[in-house]
Amino acid sequence: MTSSLVLLGNSKDGTINTFDLTGDTLTPLAVSEVGVPGLPLAVDARRDLVFAGTTKPGGVTTMKLDRATGTLEAVGRVEAPGAMVYLRLSDDGSRLFWASYHDGVGGVFTVDESGALHPLGDEIHYPNLHSVQVSADGRFAYFVSLHDDLIAQYSVTDAGLAPLDPPTVAAPEGSGPRHIIVTRDQESVFVNTEYSGEVLHYRRDPASGTLDFIASQVCIPTDRGLTHSRFGADPRAEDLIWGADLHLDDSETRLYCSERTRATITALDIASHGVLGEMIAHSDVVAQPRGFAILPNGDLLVASEIDRIVGQYRPDGDSALSLVASFPAGLGAYWIEVIDR
Predict the structure, then answer these.
(1) For residue 132, which of 166, 82, 185, 65 has the smallest C-alpha distance?
(2) C-alpha Rg value of the chain to the nearest Å
């Protein structure tokens, strides 16, 4: 029976929950202290290292994972000129990319064999950078600016980040692009939007690394009384759209999107070549689901950033979700990583 470790970063508490997933059963193992808030996570499974982004002060704490107990111990730290909201490790483990929303800055570290981090080149600057993704070959990186409705695209060189031509690709005006993912074939990129509740599909040229906008599709319930949001608004007070996270299932035929105001996850059909299909199902989940993950058994683990709880949900044939179990979590839970055990 397959077994995995599941890590949950709690942004307000500065803690990481570890769970064992054996088959369909999720079991709490440990709670580890990072000591400072933030906690976007990136995992180097080969070296049993976990990189935890922090906000006060901004930087990255490197932690050693004990796979037997699930505990993590801090073994290093590097400062950065921004409060971390997103980390992404290159597939070969040699580069760690980061983005800071509040400080509008991003960059990349080299990772040496010991796991120590070293700044590479100059930082990049766009207002409210919310996420970063890197191509599987490590040659290109993409930073999403929520404020400016764009994706900044770069080649990754030995000297750092070099803008592509063109340096940016647009998202719809006022949509608030947020998180970005790349399909396994590296030919499609999906970005969800915080203010309009959409998924944006971009076609990617693997040779040049450049993106071209193809289409968009709503990926939230349209019957819950929500309207288009805007920068600086209070979504829950004004009943506004508040998109959060998105993930593809293992088959890459279903895309799931979370919306925080009404606490839902929507499943969207994905056809061949990343073509956006219709919405399949809308499911009620834990309050304010900022982050979630799809587990190896196909279940979804959904974190509430306000209720100190994480819920395990199982999709049916139409991808509607049913609650299987819930577990205590820290305050501000949102970042989830899964590691083969």
Answers:
(1) 82
(2) 19
Strands annotated E in 122-250: 124-125, 129-134, 140-145, 150-157, 160-170, 177-182, 188-193, 198-204, 211-218, 243-248
Distance between CA atoms of residues 204 and 208, nearest Å: 9
Q: Residue 341's pLDDT band (boundaries 50, 70, 90)?
A: confident
**Residue 1's pLDDT is what?**
79
Assign 71 a pLDDT band (cuts: 50, 70, 90): very high
Q: For CA atoms 195, 199, 201, 206, give the dihedral sign.
A: positive
The predicted model scores a pTM of 0.97
Q: In whole angstroms, what is the distance from residue 278 CA to residue 287 CA?
A: 25
- Angstrom distance (rounded) from CA 98 to CA 131: 8
Q: Is the peptide bond before 177 cis (omega within 30 degrees of 0)?
A: no
> Rounded to an integer, what distance in angstroms lies between the CA atom of residue 201 and that of residue 188?
7
C-alpha 284/C-alpha 87 separation (Å) is 28
Tell me the C-alpha distance between 89 and 248, whole Å. 18
Task: List residues bridging with 339 in a β-sheet.
Answer: 5
**CATH number of the domain located at residue range(s) 34-170 in this protein:** 2.130.10.10
| Beta-carbon count within 10 A of 163 CB | 12
How far are the Cα atoms of 38, 138, 144, 213 from residue 209, in angstroms, in the given order? 30, 11, 15, 13
For the chain, domain boundaries? 34-170
Helix ranges, 208-291 (H): 235-238
Paired tokens of 39: 């906690």
CA distance 305 to 333: 5
Residue 237, helix vs strand vs coil: helix
Contacts of 114 (CB under 8 A, 6+ apart): none
